[in-house]
Write a structure and sequence with these properties.
Strand content: 25-35%
CATH architecture: 3-Layer(aba) Sandwich
Number of domains: 1
Radius of gyration: 15 Å
Number of strands: 12
CATH superfamily: Class I glutamine amidotransferase (GATase) domain
Order of helices and strands: EHEEHHEHEEEEEEEEH
Helix content: 10-25%
Bound molecules: glutamine
Strand order of the largest sheet: 2-1-3-4-12-11-10
Number of helices: 5
């Protein structure tokens, strides 16, 4: 099993380190040919407009969309935005795959970063996950076929799964908790 990490911008090396801790082979994806022998893909957090622009410049948008249609793909934070079908009016390149509605900068300036213990279905049910949010997007609605895995106390949706797609609004690569990475590896192995 080999999992690629989109390495255009953002927290890609932290994802790589988490996977390496699990003993999983990884590869950085910067060009379409880097997708060739991968079994799954992580799209990291960072700045979704920058990731979209660089993906366009490198001719990656359509190859990434094709790959994600066929293989397990996980977007964290900006990666969640990149996977979503609906991010409001913003005109920026996205893959537009997951049937979720997203508010890109939902938390505003005052609370632009915070950490909170999060219960995540199938992943962190007994011991909460230390979820780090950094200028995070919020999922404001989901369509049929999307399963909500985690919500904040006010009901805001922050983790979802739709078939072989996973999306989290927070940054599991910035903690030493490996449970979400292990869960994604299970999706790739399935
Ligand atoms: N707000 C950022 C964006 O729009 C995402 C922030 C993050 O990935 N930490 O892309």
């Amino acid at each position: 099993m080999k999992i690629g990490i989109l390495a255009l911008q953002g927290a890609f090396s932290e994802h790589e380190q988490q996977l390496q801790r699990l003993g999983v082979a990884t590869a950085q994806v910067r060009l379409p040919q880097h997708l060739a022998d991968l079994d799954g893909l992580i799209i990291p957090g960072g700045e979704s407009t920058t990731i979209g622009k660089l993906a366009t410049d490198y001719g990656l948008v359509e190859p990434l969309r094709d790959f994600a249609r066929q293989r397990p793909t996980w977007g964290t934070c900006a990666g969640l935005i990149f996977l979503a079908q609906d991010i409001g009016v913003a005109a920026q390149p996205i893959l537009g795959l997951m049937a979720i509605h997203v508010n890109r900068n939902a938390f505003g300036r005052q609370v632009d970063s915070f950490e909170t213990p999060l219960t995540i279905a199938d992943v962190a049910e007994d011991v909460p996950f230390p979820a780090v949010f950094i200028r995070a997007p919020l999922i404001t609605g989901v369509e049929a076929g999307v399963r909500v895995l985690a919500t904040l106390p006010d009901g805001g949706i922050v983790a979802v799964r739709q078939g072989h797609w996973l999306a989290t609004a927070f940054h599991p690569e910035l903690t030493d908790d490996l449970r979400l990475h292990r869960y994604f590896c299970g999706m790739v192995n399935a």
